[in-house]
## 1
Amino acid sequence: MPSTKHLRMLIVIGALVSAVVGLVTLRAHAGPSPEPSIVNNPALEVFDIPAYDFDANPLGDVPGAKVSSVTEPILLTTETPVPVVLPKTVGAIPDMYITDPSVQADWQLVVLNYKSSAYGQVQIFERAEGLTQEGIDQWAEPGYCTSCTFAESVVLAGGQRAAVLGTPGSTTVVHWIQKGVQIDVMGPFSTLSRDDAVAVANDLSVQ
Amino acid sequence: MVGSHHATGGSRRTIRKSRVVLAFALVFATLLLMGLSFRVSAAYGCAENGAIFWSGGDYTTNARGNQQDLVVRAHVSGGCGHFNDLRAGGTVHMSGPPGDNLVETGWRDYIASCCDPDNDHVFLLFNEIIVSGQVSVFLYDDPACTFSGNTVTMRLIRGTTTNVWVAHRKCNGGSWAQLGTGLGTNFWSASPRVETFRAGPSGGGGFILDFHRNLDWKKPDNTWKGSFGTMHCESDWMDDTRGKKPSDPAYEWRTVEPPDGVEC
C-alpha cells in the first residue's frame, strides 16, 4: 500500500500533468487568428542598416550642391529651397548641402553640417516638406519610439512644440516646425547630449 | 527468516541502485543546464550579420507605393540570435529622403524559446518606421498567414493627401487586411526596395534564402507599374548572400550563394 507521502506526491504530479494537458488542448482548439493582431512592441529595436554616417555627404546619392563655410552674407546670395536659419551659438561655421531643383518637392532640403568645439558634430536639416505637428507629437509619446532611451515633448524658446529623441548607437535628434519649415537638429548619440541638442534647437527657434 | 533476510538484502541493493541512478540523473541534469546556459548566452552574444537592399523603378525616388509577394521562411541561425531573439526577415521597403528615413513592412523569424534556439520559430509580421535614426517597430501575430513556406503579399501605400503610409497584407490570394495604424513619415514619395536581413552569426555559414515575387511599385500618377523596372543592388552587408534578378524589367528577385549573383 502506498504511504500518505506517496499519495500526496501522486496527487501533485497528477495535477501538474492535467494542467499541462489542459493548456495544450486549449491552445490546439484556439484556431488561427483571422486578422493580424498586434503583439507587444520590442523593448529595444535592432538595426538592419548601419548607423548614420555623419562624415559622409548628407545628401547621399540625391543630386545637390555643397557650399563651404556658410555665413549670413553668403546665405543672402545663395538660392535655397527653403529660407535658411543659422544658429548663433554653435560656434562654428558650417558647410551647407542643397538639393538640386530637379529633385522632387518633398525631398527638397538644406543641410547645415557643423563640426563644433562646443557640441561636436551636428547636422541641421531644414526641409520644405516633413513631419506634421501630429507626427512630431506622436514620436514624443511614451513607447512609440522603440529604439529610444529618451523621447519627450518640449516647448522651445520660440514657442514651437518639439520632440526630443535619443537612440544609443544612432542619433540624438530634435524635430519641430518653424515658419512652415520642418527642422531636425541631429547629432551622434555618443557625442550630442539631449540638453545640447535642445540648446541648439532653442537657439534656432528664435531666429 | 532466511527468506526475510534475503528480501531485506534485495531492498538495500535496490535502494543503492536508486541512489546511483539518482546521482547520475543529477549529474546529467547539471550538465544539461550548463549546456543550456551556454546556448542562452551565445544567443545573446551575436552581432547583426547584415542586410541586402536592391532598389527598383529605374532609380526612382518618386514611388508612392511598393507591393511584393514575400515567402516566409524558417532560417537556421546557428544558435545565435540578437536582441529580442530575432533571426531574420524579408521586407517591402521604402527608402526616404536624406537623414536616415524609411518605412517598411514584412515578416520576421524569431527564436521561439531562449532554451531551444535552433529548432523553434515564431513568425511575426511587422511595420517599421525610421525618422532621423529613431526607430519604431510594431509586431503582429498572424498565424493563419505567417508560417514557413507560405506566401504573404505585402504592400505600403500612402493616401492622396497625406504623408502617412499604410501597410496591408494579403494571405494566399485572400482580401487585403490593414496592418496596424498609419505610419507618419517625413516624405510623400520614396525609393521602392526589396530587403533581406538576418541576425548572427557573422563570418560565413549564414546564407539566407529569400524570395520576393510579383514586384510592383506605384507611380506618381497613382497607378501601378506592373513590374519593378530595372533593379539595382544598393547595398550588401552579407559575405555569404547575394541578390539576383532574373530579368529587366524585374518581376521577381531572390538571394543566391556566391559566386552567383551580384554584390555591391
## 2
Amino acid sequence: MGALEGLAFGFGVAFTWTNLFACFAGVLVGTLVGILPGIGPVGAMALLLPSTFALEPATALIMLAGIYYGSMYGGSTTSILVNVPGEAASVVTAIDGYQMTRSGRAGAALSVSAVGSFLAGSVGVVGIVLFAAWLADQALRFGPPEYFAMTVSGLLLLSRLSGGSAVRSLVMVAIGLAVGTVGMEPISGFRRFTFGSVQLSQGIELVPVIMGLYGVAEVLAIAESGIKKAHIERVKLRELFPTKREWKQSSWPIARGSVVGFLTGLIPGPATVLATFVATRSKRRSRGRRNGSAAARSKASPARKRRTTAQRRARWSRCCRSVFRSRRPRRFCWARSSSTASSPARCSCRNARTCSGASSRACISATRCCSSSTCRSSGSSSACSGCRNTCSRRSCCCSASSARTA
Amino acid sequence: MTDRLAALLVIIAGGAYLAAALPLPRGVAARPGPGFYPMLVGVVFCIAGLAFIVETFRRVPPRASPDPITAAARIRALATAGTLIAFVVVLPWVGYVAATFFFVAAMLRALGGGWTLALATAIASAAASYWLFASLLAVPLPKGVFFD
C-alpha cells in the first residue's frame, strides 16, 4: 500500500462518527486542561491517558491527538487573556495577543490564534506527508555544530525580539543562561550551583520561570493600579469574529508562520519554542519600522508604507515651516511636531528629551512600546506603567491617546 | 538612577556567578568539564553588566517628570510582593488549603476589597483549586506539618 492509499485509508477511519466525536471530546478536554497554568500538552496527555483505556486503539489515538492540539491551544488562551503563558511555546502569543486584549480585541485574538494554529498544523501535516522521507534524511544530518549554530541564532533572535536596547537584551540573555546552568550537568551528572538542595539539582524549569515573570509581574501591575481599576476583559460571543481588516492583516503572518514553523519544527530537539520565536521575529522584520504591536497586523503592505511616507513628509514640511518662522533649532522641531502632528506614533519619541535621551534607534522601539496598547487601553497616566523604563510617562501617554485615533 | 542601580546589581550578580563558577572543574576545551560552560556564561554575564552601566552613562539623563506612582500604589505593590513571598515560606508549614485561603484573603484586602468579598473568594478559590488539582488531577500538594 503506497503512502497516499494509506493516507486515504486513514481519512476513512478518522471520518467516522465515533472517531470524530472522540476527536472533539479530546480537543475540548485538552483545551480546558491546557488553560491550567503549567500543564502543557505532554502533561495533559499523561493526565488524560487513563480516560482512553476503554476505547478502541484508533479512537484512543485520535482522542490523544485531539488532547495534544487542544492543550496546545489552551496554553495560548491564558497568554492572550491575562498575559500569563501556560507554557514556553505560547510566550510569544502573550506579547501580541495580550496587547490585542488590552485594546478590546480579545475575541479576535483568540479566533486568529485558533485559525492560525489550525492552518499551520494542517500545512505541517501535509508537508510531512509529501516530503517525509527526504526531510528525515536532512534532519539526521544535524550534528553538534548545527545545534550550536541553532542555539546561537535562537539567542540572537530572542535578544532582538522585544526591541529596546541591545545591551539590556544581552543582560537578559546572560541571566537566562546563568539560570539554565543550575542543576545536574547533563553529561557528567555533576551538580552545579545546587547548594546541597535536592530540588535545585533538578534544574530550574522554564514553566515556573515564565509563570513567575509574567504572572507575578501582571499581579504586581494590578496591585499598583488597585483592584478597582483592574478588570479582566470580557469576551462577547460576537467579538470572537475578527473584522475583515484583521483577517487581511493576519493572513500573511499566518502563512509565513506556517512555513517557518514547519521548517523549524523539522529539526529534532526542542524546536517548538524556537519555531515560535523565529516566526515572530520574521513577522517583526517584515513589519518594517516596528511601530505597532497588535498581533493581527503586518504593516508591510505597500499601501501602508506609502501612507506612512506621505505622513512623514507632511510632518516634516510642517516642522520646517515652524522652524523657519520661529528660528528654533531642528532638534526642538521634532518636539514641536510631536505635539502637533496628527499621527505622532513615531514622532513623539524622536526627540531626545521625551525619550529619556535615547538614540533614535532606541526611540523607535520605545515608540513601539508607547503606541502599543499598554497605553492605548486608557489615556490616563497610570496605564503607562508598561513603558516607564524606555520612555518618559508623558510622551508615552500622548502618543498613546493619539495612536488610538490613528 | 534606577538604571544605574540595576546595572550595578547585574555586575554584582555576574561577579558572584563567575566566582561560584570558577572553582568547578573546567577540563580543557577539547573535553570540557562541568565548569567550562558556566565560566563562559559568567564572563558574558559580567560583560553584559559592564556594557549596561556604560550605556547608562552614555544616555542623557531624562527630564524630571512628575512621578505618577503614588505612595498608596507603592504600598499596594510592596504588600503584594510581601504576601507572595510569605505564601511561599508558609506553604510547607500550614499546607496548601490554609495557605491559599490566607493568601487570597490577604491579597484581596491589600488590594482594597471588602471583608466579605475577601473571605468568600478565599474560601471558594482554596476549595475549588484543591478539588481541581488534588482530587481531580492528583497533584501532590503540601499538606502541612500539622496535618501529617
## 3
Amino acid sequence: VTTAPAAEPGDAKGWGALGDRLRLAGDIDAADQAYARQIRASVADPELAAAADALCEGRAADCHRLTSSVLARRPDDVQALWLFAELAARTGRPHDAETLLARALGRAPGFTEARYAYAVVLHQQGKAVQAIAEADRLLQDDPGHAVYRQLGAAARTRVGEDQAAALAYRAVLDAHPDLALTWMAYGHVLKTLGRQDEAVAAYREAIRLRPGLGEAWWSLANLKTVALARDDIARMAAELERPELGDEDRFHLQFALGAAHEAAGEDAQAFDHYAAANALRRAALPYDPDETTIHVARCKALLSASFFAARAGGGSPRPDPIFIVGLPRSGSTLIEQILASHSQVEGTQELPEVEILAARLGGPATKPSEGVYPDILAVLSPDEFRALGEEYLQRAAAHRKTDAPFFVDKMPNNFAHIGLIRLMLPNAKIIDARRHPAACCFSAFKQHFAMGQPFSYSLADLARYYRDYVELMAHFDAALPGAVHRVIYEEMVADPQTQVRNLLASCGLPFEEGCLRFHENDRAVRTASSEQVRRPIFTEATDHWRRFEPWLGPLMRDLGPVLEAYPDAPHF
Amino acid sequence: VALTSWKTGPIRLTMGAPTAAAQDAAADKASLAEIGAAVQARDFDLAGRLAERALAAGLEHPAVLNLAALKLEGEERFEEAVRLLQRAVAVAPADPGARNALGLCLRRLERDAEALAQFDEAVRIAPTFAGAHSARGGCLESLGRLKEAEAAFQRSLDLQPENLGAIAGLANLTSRRGAHAEARALASKVLAAQPGYPDAVIVVAAAELAEGDATAAQARLEALISDPRLTAQQLAFAQGLLGDVLDAQDRVPEAFSAYAACNMGLWRTYASSYGTPPSALEFAQGMIGRLDAIDPQAWTAAGEPPPGATGHVFLLGFPRSGTTLLEQVLASHPDVEALEERETLSAAMRAFLATPQDLDRLAAATDTELRPLREAYWARVREEGARVEGKLFVDKHPLNTLKLPLIARLFPHAKVLFARRDPRDVVLSCYRRRFVMSGSAYQLLTLPGAAGYYDAAMQIAERMQPALGARVHVVRHEALIADFDGVVGSACEFLGLGWTDALRAFSARTQDRGIATPSGAQLAGGLSAEGVGQWRRYRQQMAPALPKLRPWVERFGYEPQ
C-alpha cells in the first residue's frame, strides 16, 4: 500500500481511517502523514490550523512556536495539547507527548484520537501495561477496531502475555486475512510460545501475501532449526533482483540468504550475503561507536570504589532480580534458561526497564554523550536510589507471571548500567555471560536483531564494542570485587555440571537437577537463541566460527589484546 | 532568626488597613489582626496558613499576599510565589517589603535582571531599608557587577551594621578576589552571630584551603554538606569547593566525584531555566550547519570604523583559555579601555542570531539593517561605563567566539585577539570551576558536554577564519606564561600599541577591578604556570572528553599524550 487514495482535505475521519489502513499495512511514515492531515482537518482555530500545516509540512520549529503560543494563552485547549503531543512524539520526545496527552484526556476523556495517540506513545516507551489498558478502553467503544486490537496485541507481547496476544492477532487476521505484517507478528508470537509449526505456517502465509517481505524470510531462517530449501534460496534471490525492493526487505533477505547458504555449507556465498546485509543495515543506522567508548570512559572516571563506598546503604534492599549482562549471542539465553529451570527463579525476557531509567536520568539531550548520565548518579540521594530500585521492580513486575522469589532480566546491554544497578538494587545478582570474542562477534554479525544492538552490523564496530565491554567489566571487577559472576560460555558447554553449580551458588540458590535439564522447560523464549535452548547443550557451536576464519582476519586484528587474553581481560 | 530565612531572606511586612478591594471590612480587619499576631509571634507557618485562607476568601492585601507567597517559597513553589508577589506589588506599588520579597523570589528563579529592578525600586522608595540593599548586593554579585555589589553591601552595613546578609556578601566578594584573611574575619563575624551560616562556612573553608590547611577545610565542608537545610546552590558550591580541597590533597578520584556532585546539583537546580532544548550546544551545532551552507565571502563586508575609539578588538577564545589574563594585561596599558564579559551584542543577537537559521539573513543583511545594531552596541558599551574616546577598545568575552558571524558583519574593521590554551586544560578547568549560570555554563557541567561545546566554538571560529584573515592574532596562554614580554609585545604590535612596563604590573590592578569570572582570585597572585598541563593528573577522568578534543590538540600543536 504505497499510493493509498487521499481523503478530502477537510475530512478528519477519512484521514484517520487512511492513517489506520496505512498503519496496518506497515507504512508508518505515510500513516503519520495521514494522521497529521487528520489533525489539520480537525482544528478550526486559525492559529492551530497554521500549526497543523507546519506539522504536515515537517516544519517542526514553526509548529512548536505556534502551538506554544496557543497553549500559553489556553493551557487546556485539548486540540492544541494533541497537536503539541504529536509534534513531541515525532521529534523524539515521547515522554513529553505522554504528559500532554494525559492532560488532554483529563479534560476530554472521550477524545478518541488523543487516547489512541496516548496508547501509542505509552507503547513506544515500553509502558506496556498502561498501553494495554488504553487499547482495551478504546476497544470497549469500538470492539472490532483492528488498529487498537493490534496495538493491544503488540503491547501484550512486551509483558509476556503471549497467549492473549496470539488470540488478538488471530482475531485481526480472521477479519482481515490479507495483512501480511499481522501474519508475521502472529508468527513471532507463535514462535515465542514454542508452536514452531504454526509459526512457520504463519511466516509462509506472510510470504505468500508479500513475497518480498524480507523480515518474514529472515524470521524463518532465524528459527535456526528450519533449513531453507534450494527453492527458497532461488525465490529470495529473485526478490533481491527487483529494483523497487526497499532496503528493509533487502537486508532481511540478505541475512536470510546468508543463513540459508551457511546451512548448505556454502560458506563463501554465506559470508558475502552476511556482509551485504550488514553493510545495508549499518548504512541506515546512526550508530556512533564513540558514544559507547565515551560512556565506558565516563563510568570508569566516576564510578570508583570510593564512589560506591560513599553511597553504601542506599537503594532498595530487595534481592529479587538476577541480571544477565554481556554481549548478545554470548550464551545469555542459555544461562537464563538454566536459571529459569530453578524452582525459585522466574525467567522473563530482555527487559528495557534499566535502559529506560538510565535514559531518563540522562535528561533531554539528543545524544547520550551530551546528557548527564552517569554523572547524575553523583548527586542522587539514598532515597532516590531506593525509589529507582522500587520503580524498576514495579516495572519489571509487569513482565512477571509467578511469585517466585527471584526473576531474571537478561537485557545484555545492561552491562553499561552496572553502576546504576548496584546503587539502586545493591542486593541484586549480576551474571556476566562471556563467550570467545571472535565466536561471539561473528555470531552477532550473522544476526539481524529486531531492535537495538546497532553496533552489531560491522565487524569493526563489533570488535570495538566488545573491547569497550571487556574494559568496563574489568573496571567493575576492580571497583566492586565479587559483585559480578562471570560465566565463560565454552566452560559451561564443556562442563555444565560444575558450571551450573557455580552459577547457582553465585546466586545463593541451592542446586537443583532440573537446571541441568533446562531444555525441557516449556517457557516462552523470545531471543535469537530461542530455538537453540529448546535443545540440550551442544558443543559444535563453540568453534563453528572457525569455518569462517578466512574472512575474519580484520575482526581478530581489531580485537587484539582482548582476543589474546581471553578468557581473561587484558590490562587496560 | 529561623534558618529558613537563609532561603527567603530578610522579611519585612507592613500590616495596615484593608485595601479598597475588600468586601467585608470588619471580617478582613479581623483576619489581618489575626495574621499580624502570628507574625508578631514569628510563627510564620501559622501566618502563612492564615494568609492563604484569607487570600482564598478574597482578601487582596500586600501583607497577606506576601505571607502566602512565603509559604509557597517554603514549599519551593517559586513560580506561584512570584505571581502572588506581583499581585502584591500591583496592589501596593509603594510597599518596599513586597518589592523586596518579589526580588528575592525572582532570584530563586535566577531571574536576576528582573529581581534587580525590584530591589532598585525598593531602595528608591525606602533608602534606609538595609535588607533590600543587602539583597540588591547579592543580586548584583550574581550579575557579575562586583563593584556595585560591594557598594550595596556597604550601604546596608552603614544602615544596619549587624546585617548578616551584607557581611556574608562582603565576605564572599573578598574571598572571590583572593583576600582570604580579610574574608575570613568577616565570615567569622557572621558565624559568631549565626553558627553554620552556609555562605560564611564556605568562605572560611576557602581561606583554610588557601592557607594550606586542606584537612580542616575538608572537615568543615563535609559537615556543611550533611546539613539538610542547605539550598541546592549552596550544597553544590560546598561540593565544588570540597572538590578543590580533595584536589589539593591529590585525591583525584574523590575530587572528581565531588565535582560531579557539584555540577549535577547545579544541573538539576537550573534544569527549569536551561534544561529545555535546544541546548547551547545544539544551538551552536545548528549554527555550524548553517555556516556550512553559506558562502564564506558573505562575512567579508564593508563597514564603519569605530566612533571615537582609535581601535576596536574582540578578545575571544573559550572560558578558562586565558582571556581574563590577557584582558587584565591589556587594560593596564594607558591607551586601552576594556570591558569584561558584558553582553554588548544583545541587540544584535535578538535581531540576527535568535535562531541558527537567522545566519542566512545575517549573511545577506544590508548596511541599513546593520547600522542601528552597531549604534546599539556602542551605546551599550557606554552604558556599561566604558570611555572609548581616544582609546583602543577591548571587548573581552570568551563566548563571543560563538558570535563571530555577527562580529564579522557588524565590525569589519575590528581585530580579533584569540586566547588559546591546551584544549584539555581548558575543558578540565571549565568542568572544575563554578561559573555564573547561563545556557553556556550549563553546557560545561559534564566533560563530554564541555568538550562538545569547545569543539563547536572552535568549529565556528574555523569557519569564520577565511573572512577574518589577517585581522586575527592568536595568543597562546602557555607561551605568555613562559615569555611574557615577548608574547605580550607581539600582541601589542598586532594591536598597534607601544610597549609600556605598566603591562607587567597587571596584577596590581586586578585586586581593584572586581573580576566576576572564576579567574579573579587566581590573577590577583600574578602569573602562574600552575594550570599548565593540569589535565594530566586527571588523565583517566578526562577520557570521556578526549574524542572531541583530539583533533584540536593536534591542530593547535599541543603534545598528543
